[in-house]
Amino acid sequence: MPFTGQTVLITGATGNLGKAVARVFDAEGARLVLVGSRPETLEAAYPARDTRHLGLAVDLTDKAASERMVAEAEQACGGIDVICAIAGGFTAGKPVHETAPADWDRMMATNVFTMLNVVGPAIPGMIARKAGKIVTVGANSAIKGAANTGAYISSKSTVMRLTESMSAELRQHGINVNCVLPSTIDTPENRQAMPKADPSRWVKPEDLAAVIVFLCSEGAAATHGALVPVIGLS
Hints:
By secondary structure, this protein is α/β, with parallel strands linked by helices.
C-alpha cells in the first residue's frame, strides 16, 4: 500500500469525484481528511467511516475558517502529505457583458479561493518537511474561451495558472503541484442536466480519480506543473 502512513486531505469529499478519490486512497492505506461543506453531507457520504479517517465540515470560501480546519487536521494527523483540491462548481448562462459582478465573485470563490484557502496554510508544513503533493482541478473547457461560460472559464483558467505558478515556486522544496483537466464527468447530476448526451463518452469519476492518485504518487515525482487532460471519448 504505497500511501500507508500518509495523510491525504480531500476537499469536495462528499461529491462524486471526491468520493471516488477517497475510495482509492483508502484502499492504498492512506489516512484521509475528508472535507465537506456540512456535517450532515459528510455523514451521508461516509456513514461507516474508518476510525483512522477524519471528517471536517467547513466553508472553504471563508479563509479564516479554512485556516482553522487545516490547523485542526495537522494537529490530529501530524501533518498533511497530500492535498487533492477537488471542491468547485459550475455556473453558466450569460454572455460576458451581461455577467453580474456577483456571478464573477461566485465563480472565483467557488473554484479559486476554495483551493487557495486550503493549500495556503498547508504549504508551510510541506516546505518544512521538504515533501508534499498537491493536485488541483481545472477544466478541459477552460483551455480557451467559449460563449456564455466566461466566469466559469476564467475561474478554472486561474486555477490552472496558479497551479503552474505554485509548481515553479515549490518544486525546489520537494513539493509537486499538478492539475487535471477533465471534460464532462459522468455523474447522476450531469446525466439529469443533459439527458440527450451520450454519457459513454464522458469521463468516469473512477478514471479521473486514478489519474489524480497517480499524480500524488512517487511515480509522478518528476512531474511538476503539468496540466493533464482527462477527456475520455469527448
